[in-house]
């Protein structure tokens, strides 16, 4: 019994190690973080300078929304374009291209989007499992977008509800499947006035739409990258790449060594006519049951994570551990069917 507990603890520890590099939300961030802080207000704090859980907003992340009216009219639909960009990339230098976002209107009005847009109701929202392409709640990316751009529609409420405040948390990422210092995020806030509060004579067009952005003037318009910054970013990208590849090579090599050892043992046992040490059936059956339960649970987790497009490291590790538990069932069955020696009978 103690050995089984130890094995479960070791397995949990290994899975926690494998899960550590994968803390980024490719399917969109949750509406609130682990401390119940709204993501649209507090931002993507698992990314940015300082690494996971210590990220700070950066003016290098340029978040903008175009097509925003100065004031809304009831039941009117407006077309918004959300952009999340890296100031370095805008300046023609090396920088991030991919991005993600979370947008909130305070549950006022209706968000809709086209079939080709990688958008979904935000995680933890009441509509998170909905297959409809509309929601009154927060929205986010459904997968990392390669150019950091999304087109949505927002339909104003049927009544004058006063000024409506929008919040957009945008994350410009290096897309290395990790939340690290190579990612930059920022939060944009803006409001739309209620009907009839703003007039501009006959110049109606000036009230129709505008573009709102967050980021310093320096980053938005006159970004200049020094040689030291370029070298720093090169070193950061290089270290992230080495870390990622090192993880892949390490775990791949470990799996191959384990498989090689197992195959070698099976071949040598058959060559020598050997078999596992005898195990009485009253011990073997409970052990096979435990191994079977572990194999089924891990296989289920693997299928679930694969369907959710989680990190390859996670679902592959789950499948491997499931196969290892299944192999334990096979070895236990062999041990139960081994001819007992006189010492075993004693």
Question: What would your notes on this structure say?
Answer:
- This protein has 346 residues and is α+β, with helices and mostly antiparallel strands.
- The chain folds into two domains: 2-17 and 239-345, no CATH class; 26-225, Sandwich (Immunoglobulin-like), CATH 2.60.40.10.
- It is built from eight helices and eleven strands.
- Helix 1 (2-19) packs antiparallel against helix 7.
Write a concise keyword list for the protein shown above:
346 residues; alpha+beta; 5-stranded antiparallel beta sheet; 8 helices; 19% strand
CATH superfamily of the largest domain, by name, is: Immunoglobulins
Order of helices and strands: HHEEHEEEEEEEEEHHHHH
Q: What is the tally of beta strands?
A: 11
Strand percentage: 15-25%
Largest sheet: 6 strands, antiparallel
Question: First CA to last CA: what distance?
Answer: 23 Å
State the share of residues found in helices, binned by percent: 25-40%
Quick overview of this protein structure:
The protein is 38% helix and 19% strand. The chain is an alpha+beta fold and 346 residues long.
Indicate the topology:
Blueprint: H1 2-19, H2 39-42, E1 61-68, E2 77-86, H3 87-90, E3 99-104, E4 110-113, E5 119-121, E6 134-135, E7 139-141, E8 149-155, E9 164-172, E10 184-192, E11 210-214, H4 217-221, H5 227-272, H6 281-307, H7 312-336, H8 342-345
């Amino acid at each position: 019994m103690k050995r089984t507990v130890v094995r479960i603890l070791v397995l949990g520890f290994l899975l926690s190690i494998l899960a550590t590099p994968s803390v980024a939300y490719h399917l969109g961030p949750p509406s609130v973080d682990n401390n119940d802080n709204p993501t649209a207000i507090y931002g993507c704090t698992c990314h940015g300078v300082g690494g996971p859980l210590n990220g700070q907003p950066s003016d290098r992340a340029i978040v903008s929304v175009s097509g925003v009216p100065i004031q809304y009219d009831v039941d009117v639909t407006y077309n918004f374009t959300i952009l999340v960009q890296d100031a370095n990339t805008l300046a023609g230098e090396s920088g991030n291209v991919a991005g993600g976002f979370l947008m909130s209107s305070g549950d006022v009005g209706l968000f809709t989007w086209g079939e080709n847009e990688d958008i979904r109701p935000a995680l933890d929202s009441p509509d998170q499992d909905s297959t409809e392409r509309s929601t009154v709640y927060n929205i986010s990316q459904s997968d990392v977008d390669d150019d950091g751009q999304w087109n949505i529609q927002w339909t104003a409420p049927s009544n004058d509800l006063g000024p409506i405040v929008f919040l957009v948390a945008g994350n410009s990422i290096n897309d290395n499947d990790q939340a690290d210092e190579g990612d930059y995020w920022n939060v944009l806030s803006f409001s739309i006035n209620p009907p009839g509060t703003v007039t501009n004579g006959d110049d109606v067009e000036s009230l129709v739409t505008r573009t709102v952005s967050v980021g310093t003037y320096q980053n938005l318009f006159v970004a200049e990258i020094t040689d030291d910054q370029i070298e720093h970013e090169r070193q950061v990208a290089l270290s992230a790449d080495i870390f990622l590849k090192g993880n892949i090579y390490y775990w791949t090599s470990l799996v191959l060594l384990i498989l090689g050892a197992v195959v070698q043992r099976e071949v040598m046992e058959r060559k020598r006519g050997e078999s596992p040490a005898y195990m009485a059936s009253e011990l073997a059956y409970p052990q096979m049951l435990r191994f079977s339960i572990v194999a089924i649970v891990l296989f289920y987790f693997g299928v679930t994570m694969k369907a959710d497009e989680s990190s390859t490291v996670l679902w592959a590790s789950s499948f491997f551990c499931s196969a290892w538990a299944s192999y334990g069932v096979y070895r236990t069955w062999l041990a139960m069917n081994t001819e007992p020696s006189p010492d075993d009978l004693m």
